[in-house]
Amino acid sequence: MRVRSLGGVGGVAVEGVDLTRLSDDEAREVRRLYDQHGLVVFRGQTLTKPQVVAACAPFGGAFTDRVAQAVDPEAPGIDVISTRGYGGDVVPDDPDAVLGATEWHTDMGYVTKPNRGKILYAVRVPEEGGKTGFIDGQMTYRELPEALRRRIAGLHVVQSWSRLERLRQNSDQRAYRLDGDNQLAPNLFPDVVYPLVHPHPLSGEMVLNLPPMWADGIVELPGAEGEALMTELIAHITQAKFQYWHAYEPGDAVAWDNWRFLHAASGTPGRCVRTIWSVSINAGPEIGRRLEAA
Ligand SMILES: [Fe+2]
């Protein structure tokens, strides 16, 4: 197993390991790398859908509660993210339109118990675009100016599913899924509240948590003051020096820690074929709570 850094922004790439046949020692080592670095790119994998689900085992197992997504008949837990639709047979009508770009976010940030992480397996890699961005919330917390650290201690962010749905309705950004099954009710999940800073549930390292896609206000600072603080924090978090953008090679399986990292998608021009199989890693403790219980 060969491990090298992805650069100054956290994360490692691993070569020489087959996720379908890990020895006990290798399973312990990939888990250790995942816990330590929070972002691990496994190069050169050849995986079926059930093998992508099984690859979650060292990290806590797959999360198969598909509240917001379709259930794949071949492998429950898999989500197909493709510029050609779930079944691979939908051709976008505008070849230049960028599909699937997203803001920075945590997955399942709209419920109180987010998934531990995710694995994205690259099935088809596009000639252009199609990158996934990562930002380490432990690094952005460590680099936060002391005065800002003091200001945000004890504060909470409202994380809102309906915020995203409101944005979608006012946008011409098209969803990746072209087959119409991505339209979910704007009130599907009630707003939740997360600490702006929380100790990582396993390591205890402090994580700066402000996912721009979900963030809809600061509980303790309603109105303009909270908005201004969120703007200042988001400007800090999203500095280029904290971003790692992964350009996939075919066979890459990218595992990350969703309790710690933000991620985003660059999007892919419709003329390019990009297909990713995605599976969530099991949930853990509650990090957020319901807004009405705040
Ligand atoms: Fe995501």
What is the rounded Rg? 19 Å
What CATH first level would be assigned?
Alpha Beta
- CATH-scheme architecture: 4-Layer Sandwich
What structural class results from the helix and strand content?
Answer: alpha+beta
* CATH fold label: Double-stranded beta-helix
Instruction: Estimate the strand proportion.
Output: 25-35%
Number of domains: 1
Compute the average pLDDT.
90
Bound molecules: fe (ii) ion
How would you explain this protein's 3D organization?
- The chain has helices spanning 24-37, 49-54, 137-142, 146-152, 161-169, 224-237; strands at residues 2-5, 12-15, 39-42, 62-63, 78-82, 98-99, 115-124, 132-136, 156-159, 192-195, 197-199, 206-208, 215-218, 243-246, 253-257, 261-265, 268-269, 275-283, 289-290.
- It contains six helices and 19 strands.
- It is globular, with a radius of gyration of 19 Å.
- The protein is an alpha+beta fold and 294 residues long.
- Residues 105, 107, 263 line the site of fe (ii) ion.
